[in-house]
Write a structure and sequence with these properties.
The C terminus is likely disordered. It contains ten helices and 21 strands. The chain is globular, with a radius of gyration of 20 Å. Helix 2 links the parallel strand 9 and strand 10. The chain starts with 5 loop residues before the first strand and ends in a 13-residue tail after the last strand. It is of the alpha/beta class and 398 residues long. The strands form five sheets. Strands 6, 9, 10, 11, 12, 13, 14, 15 and 16 form a nine-stranded parallel sheet that branches. A four-stranded mixed sheet has the order 3-2-1-4. Strands 5-19-20-21 form a four-stranded antiparallel sheet, with no helix packed on it.
């Protein structure tokens, strides 16, 4: 059996080798894995030199509803493969597809189909991680873009149907813990190995803490569609910011959350904020009309996706742009990159992703000085590079 190919990459700026560290450095890739990395001079003649920009771990998007014209609820296996490949141009190397509120029997069908997609997915696109079901166990008062008539309480039978639909392909469920039976549902899901996020919830902070006691570990899109922070009623936001057991999803598209609130989240919950896009089919597409969960939404220049009643319905932001927006809000680059790589990877139970330390999968992204993706590697293979700024053809590529 031939020895796996070894590639040594030197870069003017490397992040993800050690938490919070940044500076000139290098990464050694052997086969599909990172075998060595560090800051400082390259320990040998590099095969590839990245003289500007930043070499970072592959970006991990823990909440994506669709992209490039297709809602995941309507996606064929070919659509999933196409979207996964096109996401590599945004620096996304791992993704959690999200299915929003629908009747549970429809969600069961979607989960079964998604399991078959994962088992046959080609290897040149973003990794398809176990999916996220957002609803139907949500608060009517905080439903956002979810259809109210489909919202239900999480009975044991309904939860069991989701868990058993496609074992191993359901990563987490978002629910409102104040609904009847919800705390028991959190325990049921956690016992089955499915993570639980608090979201679309009008719960008080005591109920959120009870959900965390029962096994909840996430908050879905902090600030949005949840009981806000008040000094005498901390709500979901206050509980999320204060409870170290909870990882907080945050949409930084400069529409969902104001910059001061972005800074507050990172200041209060440093190391627990994960950037998510919550993007819909409009991602990567021109202004127009698209679908989310069977209902139309409209995207105009300079505006987020909107339902007909004006409700924001997801975003159209790219993961690399989410990192750039976070930096523009006053967060340092190392922290912003960590929030798009290590934090979501750990929250999803994937310590082999989201960092450039030995033994992790060699998913790498070269961001230019403006923090736009310039090249992407998955499992040590170059899967995308900017055609307008190609890598030096005289240099060996990973």
């Amino acid at each position: 059996m031939p020895e796996p190919e070894r590639t040594l990459i030197a870069a003017a700026s490397v992040l993800g080798v050690a938490r919070g560290a940044r500076g000139p450095g290098w990464v050694e890739v052997t086969g599909e894995a990172v075998t060595a990395s560090g800051h400082g001079p390259c320990p040998g003649e590099p095969d590839l030199v990245l003289a500007d920009g930043h070499l970072v771990p592959g970006l991990v998007d823990a909440q994506l509803n669709g992209a490039f014209g297709t809602d995941f609820a309507d996606a064929s296996p070919a659509d999933f493969a196409r979207i996964a490949h096109e996401l590599t141009a945004t620096g996304t190397t791992s993704v959690v597809p999200t299915f929003i509120t629908a009747p549970v029997d429809e969600l069961v069908t979607l989960l079964g189909s998604y399991g078959r997609v994962r088992s046959t997915a080609p290897g040149d696109g973003a990794r398809l991680l176990p999916c996220h079901v957002e609803g139907p166990f949500l608060s009517s008062r905080r439903r956002g873009a979810h259809r109210e008539h489909l919202l239900v309480d999480p009975t044991s039978d309904l939860v069991r149907a989701l868990v058993e639909a496609s074992p191993g392909d359901l990563g987490y469920v978002t629910l409102a813990p104040e609904r009847d039976g919800a705390i028991d549902a959190v325990r049921q899901l956690a016992t089955a190995g499915v993570a639980v996020a608090v979201g679309h919830s009008d719960a008080g902070d005591d109920v959120v803490r009870a959900a965390a006691d029962a096994g909840a570990t996430l908050v879905t899109h902090l600030y949005n569609a949840q009981r806000p922070l008040h000094h005498r009623d901390p709500g979901v936001v206050g509980a999320g910011l204060a409870d170290p057991r909870l990882t907080l999803g945050l949409i930084v598209d400069l529409h969902h959350v104001e910059p001061t609130a972005v800074r507050l989240a990172f200041a209060a919950a440093g190391g627990r904020v994960m950037l998510v896009t919550d993007a819909v089919a409009a991602l990567g597409m021109p202004p127009g009309t698209y679908e989310l969960g069977g209902e139309a939404l409209t995207v105009a220049d300079g505006s987020p996706p909107l339902r007909a009643d004006g409700t924001i319905a997801g975003s159209a932001v790219r993961m690399d742009d989410a990192v750039a927006h976070t930096v523009s809000c006053g967060i340092d680059l190392a922290t912003a990159v960590d929030a798009a790589t290590r934090v979501p990877a750990d929250a999803l139970g994937r310590p082999d992703l989201g960092r450039l330390s030995p033994g992790t999968l060699a998913d790498l992204v070269w961001l230019d000085d403006g923090l736009r993706c310039r090249a992407t590697w998955i499992g040590g293979r170059l899967v995308w590079s900017d055609p307008t700024r190609p890598l030096d053809p005289e240099q060996e590529q990973a």
